[in-house]
Amino acid sequence: MKNNIDKKSRVSGDVYDAVIVGGGASGLAAAIELGIEAPEFRVAILEKNDELGCKIRATGSGRCNIANVDAEGYKDIMSFFGKIGLVTRAYDNGLVYPYSESAADVTALLDRKAIELGIEIITGAEVRSVQKREDIFEIEYIYGAGKTTHNGNVCSSNVILATGGKAGPTFGTTGDGYKISRELGHTIVTAVPVLTSVECREWQSTGTLDARTLGGTRMRGRISLYKDITGLFEEDTKIFEEMGEIQFTKYGLSGICVFNMTRFMRYNKSAGETLEQFRIKIDLFSDGHIEDHLSERRKSELSGEKISDVLCTVLKENIAEYVIKYAEEQIAGSIFTSGRPVSTLTDEEIASISDAVHQLTFCPIGIRGWKDAQATAGGVSVEEVDLSTFESRLCTGLYITGELLDRDYPCGGYNLSNAWLTGILSARDISKNASL
Ligand SMILES: Cc1cc2nc3c(=O)[nH]c(=O)nc-3n(C[C@H](O)[C@H](O)[C@H](O)COP(=O)(O)OP(=O)(O)OC[C@H]3O[C@@H](n4cnc5c(N)ncnc54)[C@H](O)[C@@H]3O)c2cc1C
C-alpha cells in the first residue's frame, strides 16, 4: 500500500480532528468507523510499518480468527464488518472467520475502506511522542531510514493510541505505546508475553527419562496448571484446566490449550518468585481409566500382551514409551520395558502407570518470549480509561485501545474482538462529540 499523503505534507504540522497512532486492527477499525460516522472529520493514521495491518495478515495462521460469538461486543463487531461488506462464518465452537478464510483479504478490505472514506494514511511514520498543549495534541514522528531520518509532526483535537503491545515485534509492536502513555500520565501494568509455548525441565534431562523423545508429537489431552509455593501441587491448588491438542515440541509444550494456560503463569520476578511454584499435569486418557483398562487386560485372554502394546491402544508409541519410563521412575526396582506381559503387573505398578497416564507432570522453566507470543498481558491500566468509550480518564481527547490496554484474552478470536471493539467505541465517542 502506498501513502495516500504527499510526502511533503509530512512535515506540515497539519491539524486533524483525530489522529490514530498505529494502523493495526484497532486503529483501522477506529479510522473506518470515524470515516463512516463523521465524514466531515479530517482523520489520519500514522503507522510505522510501510503497510497497514501487518499483524492482521498473520492472524489465525493466515485465516484470521476475526471474532468469537461469545466475545464482548460481538454484535457491534459484526455490525461494523457488515457495514464494510465483509462476509463471515461462525463455526459451532464459536470461532468466527471471514468467509474466504483469508487474513490478507480482511487487511485489503480494511485498507481499501479507509482510503475510500478519505482517511489520510501516513505509513513509515514512527510516532515518538504525543503531548497535549491546551486543547490540542502535538504528535511527533520520524520517517525515513538510517541517516536519512526526518522529523514530522501533526496536531489533532483527538488522539487514538492503538500501537498494540509487545507480542510479535516483527509486526511493528515493540511497546512504543507504553512510553507515550506514561508521558501522558498513565500507569503501565508490567507487560508479559502470553499465548505462547512453555519450556520444561524434562526436556533438559540427562537421565533415561528424556522428554525430547516426545518432540514433534501431538495428542489430545486435558492440561492442568497448579500453583503452590509449598511444592505439594494438590487438587485445590489447580488454577487452570483445559481440554485440547497438546503439541510436544523440541523444548517443551505448545498448542492452543498451552497458549491459554500461559495467561495464568504470571509471577513476580522482582519479588523473588520463579516458575518453580507451577506444575503442569496432563491427562492423556481423560475419557477413560487406564487402571481399569490394564486390570481388565491382566485378567483377560489378552494378558500375554506386552505392556507397551496395550498402552499403544490408547497412546502414541513414543508417548507410551515415555509414560512407561516415567512410571518406572516412580517405583524403585520396577522394570516395564523388557517386553513384560500385562499379566505380570502388580497393583502398585498399574497405579504407577495410571499416575503417569492421567497426571503426567512437567516443571515449567521458561515461557517463550515476545517473538513467539500472540498477545500481551499487562499494558495501560484499565482503571485509567472509561471502559464504554476508551477515553483516558486522565487526559480528555486521548483514547487508548486494543492490545495496548491491560486486557488479554484466550485464543479463539477474543483478542482481535477486543481490538476491533475498542477501536469502534472510541471512534463513536469522538464522532458523537463532534456532532454536538
Ligand atoms: C501470529 C499471531 C496470530 C494471531 N492470531 C489471532 C487470531 O487469529 N485471532 C485473534 O483474536 N487474535 C490473534 N492474534 C492477536 C491479535 O492479532 C492482536 O491482539 C491484535 O492485532 C491487537 O490489535 P491492535 O490494533 O491493538 O495492535 P496491532 O494489530 O498489533 O497493531 C498495532 C500497530 O501499531 C503500529 N505501531 C506501533 N508502534 C507505533 C508507533 N510508535 N508509531 C506508529 N505506529 C506504531 C504497529 O506497527 C502496528 O501496525 C494473533 C497475534 C499474533 C502475533
Counting helices, strands and paired strands, the structural category is alpha+beta
Question: How many runs of DSSP E, i.e. beta strands?
Answer: 19
- Listing every helix as H and every strand as E from the N terminus to the C terminus, the arrangement reads EHEHEHEEHEEEEHEEEEEHEHHHHEEEEH
Named once each, the bound ligands are: flavin-adenine dinucleotide
Extract low-pLDDT stretches. Answer: 6-11
| Distance, first to last CA | 35 Å
Question: Which homologous superfamily in CATH is the superfamily of the largest domain?
Answer: FAD/NAD(P)-binding domain
| Content of β-strand | 25-35%
Shape: elongated
Please give the CATH class of the largest domain. Answer: Alpha Beta
Binned, the helix content reads: 25-40%
Write the CATH architecture name of the largest domain: 3-Layer(bba) Sandwich
Structure commentary:
Strands 1, 2, 6, 7, 8, 9 and 19 form a seven-stranded mixed β-sheet that branches. Strands 16-15-12-13-14-11-17 form a seven-stranded antiparallel β-sheet. Strands 3-5-4 form a three-stranded antiparallel β-sheet. The protein is α+β, with helices and mostly antiparallel strands and 436 residues long. About 1% of the residues have low confidence. It has two domains: 245 residues, FAD/NAD(P)-binding domain (3-Layer(bba) Sandwich); 170 residues, no CATH class. It has eleven helices and 19 strands. α1 runs parallel beside α11, α3 crosses α11 and α7 packs antiparallel against α10. A hairpin with a 4-residue loop joins β4 and β5. Bound molecules: flavin-adenine dinucleotide (FAD). Flavin-adenine dinucleotide binds next to α1, β2, α2, β7 and α11.
